[in-house]
Amino acid sequence: MASESSKEELVRLIKKFGAYLTVKMSNLFSISLRNMDSRSVGALAGFAVAIIFTWRLLRSPSGPQRRIPKRQAPAPSSSGVSSQSTTTLVPSGVCSSSDDSRAQNVIDEFFQPVKPTLGQIVRQKLSEGRKVTCRLLGVIIEESSPEELQKQATVRSSVLEVLLEITKFCDLYLMERVLDDESEKKVLLALEDAGVFTSGGLVKDKVLFCSTENGRSSFVRQLEPDWHIDTNPEVVSQLARFIKYQLHISPFRPERTASNVFTSPSLEQFFGCV
Q1: Euclidean distance between CA atoms 60 and 82, whole angstroms
Q2: Cβ neighbours of residue 175 under 8 Å, at least 6 residues apart?
Q3: How far is 56 from 13, CA to CA, in rounded Å?
Q4: Which end of the chain is more exposed for a tag (fewer CB within 10 A), N or C?
Q5: Per residue in 109-139, pLDDT tens?
Q6: How far apart are the first and last CA of the chain?
């Protein structure tokens, strides 16, 4: 009963204080209640409520602490051997440390850098180039000379994934020097068996054949690609001033002939697939 009466007394004091504060504020700023608009009344009321709640927060005593009952010792057993409690108390700091560790793991996982896809790497490496010309021998096909193509043509399996990604973003033309029509058929059949024409955006009409190295250079200059890929250093050197970028495929790293010519042991290694 005493606590309830003290609370009622406190409420009456707060109301009186609020009324007194309102009158004082009105007199201070020379604002009559007649001339006050809704915004002024609301501002004063909000200000008074803020002061009251601040005062109550500062005056309110801290909550009563919960008393922890003492644990009674277990009664001794009939055999005379006292049982020992196996309950262990886990410090609060251990739980807090565990929670912090889990939170940190979530943050680290969230900010972990995302590995780019092969398609993103291809577009970045090609500098968003939209047209690419590429030699077949030594790049797409394992054989390295036109004479070998007269016997067989074998598509390098390791380059297929990169080749298909290039066809998704670029207008790709493949070209090669051959000695006869049979070599052309072998090359087209090998590309078809590898799924180049079905899985990618490449068509047979974009596989070009010529009888000389100069013929391949003429193809490239006529198509005006953003990138040309070749294994012949002479062709690369001739096209350096006409083509924006070139990739020279060579097992050795020759001296760089121009700033727009890059070198790599293979096409897939240039795109980081090996």
Answers
A1: 48
A2: 133, 134, 135, 136, 207, 208, 209, 210, 216, 219, 220
A3: 12
A4: N
A5: 656 677 888 888 888 888 888 999 999 999 9
A6: 84
